[in-house]
Amino acid sequence: MIKVLVYGDDSDSTGLQLYEALSAVFRIAYISGTRFYDCGETPELLLVETDRKLQCNFQDGIILFKRMSVPVEVDRCFCAIAASDNIQALQSLKNANCRVITCGMSIRDTLTLSSAGERSAAVSLQRGVHTLSGVVEESRELLLRLRRARPPYTVLAAAALLLLCGRAEEETAL
Known about the structure:
eight-stranded mixed beta sheet, 14 strands
């Protein structure tokens, strides 16, 4: 099971949006405050959403920062995902022992939106990313068919998780 900590302001619905989008691809257990959604089978992905300041130290997990997040101590994790304009998250990761995938509209970002519509998005992977299994995903375009409109950061974060988990097909329905 892949552990994903979705961290940031409780009023930000990124965690629930990711759960809804990624449940088309993964069996997911989702925990957030008073919510617990179980897939009924052995989950492939554990999404834990919190807004509490905590210390994060897990070798094989992923921390995904919401757009609005407070500082957190990250000692070690496999990978972190953050918006490139989330200065607090990037400061928290400065001395952490983990890879960072940035999402945004800059040429320096790992993932950017090439195009976006209400029902589809093209995401550009601008440099290689190591998956959880050690495979390198090279630069390419991902076409995401959306079951419903999603915020740009949610689309980019979902694409990052698909890539890290080795589930990014040339076209994926979310």
